[in-house]
């Protein structure tokens, strides 16, 4: 379902209901750009990569957000998916006392979106606005101050003194006449400065009068207590409505966060960074702080790319590419038959393929996720036979009953409708305390990250598993003690990066063109000589083997 | 006429012809943003304003460019306007070996464009690309190097040695067989790295063979001299066509530059800065260098806002707003009747109002310009009576002739067609040497600039004319000698900016709330005491009066 600015408010209850009722949520984003151009490194350190991530989140924006909720439907034995596709635009003009925003576009990112038939007019004309919590505070503070007339006085320009004197005289005349013939008086104001001066003058000289800005003039009135209360209520109502509209899409993020439901993405690190950076707060300076912040917001994140590449039971059967479309295709195989997933009632838009629209990609991602998790569950616990048998029995008895009652119930809406049961099986993601099951805990909060020496980015711990490549070496010494020697010893092998663990240094070359053992020996011998100390050097393969 | 990427190449000759034939050109741009948010100063120094201008040109981009050529048509006694409206997109993907570009968007700028019904899909999907001269050099160099196989060798990864050995064996076998059964051999390559290694291997081991990249494989052939020449010609043709497409819109700018025709804009400083920054080169570090660069590109610039605000004969009759639409309205008055302007044959799109589309705004700008210049000419030289009389006589005799010959010529296409003469009069902008007339020289190369203390930005000289405001004071001392004292003496009057002339300092307060004379006295007395030296201090009014 496409959601625009115009119908966002009316769709909010439906979106909240979908989040509240679901078993898990999948999401995807389309971005205005990916990263600064020009980096052609094969490998970077984790800190460097985090800085890139932060820089991207600070600069580029989500232009489309896809959310797909998945809810198990026991009577029909299947999951219902409800995809939502939101256009997001950082509307500034629209929101009174709102911020002006500047963001970056990478030309090629929009060209990529154009290839997927992205509608840029919908984006600008109908995109949903948003405020971060801090921006909301400023918005509320400004509006509250305006509403309470609690505005600091400004200096009066020499040339405006005449204007003000005339205005005061007009008002005073009207007051003196007891405003019988007219219950208000209008004062023309030519610009924002004159308007502000006039408000200020009335506030200070006629504290019992009320003002109301109109087009080209300001209306001065005397309201009785009842009128005053009515006006205050109207203003408060308008304020709350404006606030909801201004906070806009962030409400969806807030509900996703407070639901504590599993959040599924595909290669989701960048998406998560952008969600936080755009809707919540600028990304923190260190990756450690980022991990805490992200985990607090989304305590159960699962990345389908991580599943497909780093979970042995899955990676051994998924041998092709692990991009989303490939995984979608892979999971049509018989071994991934369970569970059945159908689109919820109103979502026929995605019956046909809409790859690279965020809502559809979220739907694909969630579908891939639940199928992979079902497969993993069966691998761990054996096939779902028992449950399926029970289910079959239930279904048989249920359908026997309904057959018995067919005559009576066929046209009777109050009775339970007969439901065809597809016989697929629920995958246990959360236990009764709404905590993740062991099945999920094993794979949650680890996500793919390219161009590092680690197999994944870990939201809960420092990364450990190295990618088993011949360019990576584990040196049992602290970087500070060996840095100078490394620079010399590595010269024959080209540029390299380092990562530090508590006690050791990992050295990884951009590209290796000699046998692994040659480098192991060169580093070990070289450091031995330089430090007059035997230093243990291992290849990534040895390290991982020993690590486990 | 709207010009898109798809039909740009076919429209180029028509655009060039319009520029070559015209009397003057008007232009306008629509931008992705104006400036960093948050500056609420009333006044800034010229250097600060130039830095803002440069920053804006470095960050934001022209998304739509309007060009309107105006050509005097003697037979019909009127100007023909030919407006062109170009969508501009910094296409990166499309151009092979082209740059990746990142630019900024100010959310409110797009919202403004949306209010004018801007089509963002046309912009991304059909916008015309461009390269600056430096980018073109890189493009040409890269393509030439690829075409001449003059690429530096790269290191061969350990794991690709097998792939290369197998490839060499296959090629050698085919060579050994004298390639009788097949005049080429295909080698599969799985990725860009393998492709590059293969090209390199063939280049080094089989220098007399040719390679051709295909989808998924590389074809290796032996071409005879004739085939080789044919292939070279094809590649050269393709290269030239790609180059033209890649350079794209800059060709139009180049023609505008080389035409040396008067270039008219409305409030055009920002537009000129963006044209240079986006299509030619990053803006220089100082405003002085910028002036030289801009003047060299466009030796005769005229700003309609400058005309309306700073030319006394015009500003005394144009008493309302000086935004473009207001000027367009003002110039419908009888005193601005000359000359008549009509849209050229194919431009009916602008018969109806299309304000804020760049092409239409360019048309409006040029129309306002030529009417103001005509009025100015008449003010200087008296009404166009003589010329009009001659013209009338010509017309009468011409129409007598045609009456005589009517029977013969009515359906004869070869004969000169009878043309109705609107009797409006040509405005002399250029003399016979294509140099600007005195009429134009008086107003050219001075353009409006807000938020400075000067009446205009001057492309040829340091600015001199101060805006006559009570906040501005002329102090006959060098800034370096009085800075410390100024900081103290100005404290009662709020924040201020300074500008330096060769021998003096101009001090301007953001807002003045006391009589002018009080500040004149305070500064003069204070500096006298502090420096033990009488320092001349004048208000802006005194300064301008004496300056003239």
Automatic annotation (TrEMBL), chains A, B:
Biased segments, Basic and acidic residues type: 384-394
Pfam family, one: CAF1
Coiled coil: none
Region (Disordered): 384-414
InterPro entries documented for this protein: CAF1_poly(A)_ribonucleases, R3H_dom_sf, RNase_CAF1, RNaseH-like_sf, RNaseH_sf
Acidic residues: compositionally biased ranges: 395-414
Top-level taxon of the source organism: Eukaryota
GO molecular function: 3'-5'-RNA exonuclease activity; RNA binding
Family from the record: Belongs to the CAF1 family.
Protein's recorded name: CAF1-domain-containing protein
Organism expressing this protein natively: Hesseltinella vesiculosa
Lineage: Eukaryota, Fungi, Fungi incertae sedis, Mucoromycota, Mucoromycotina
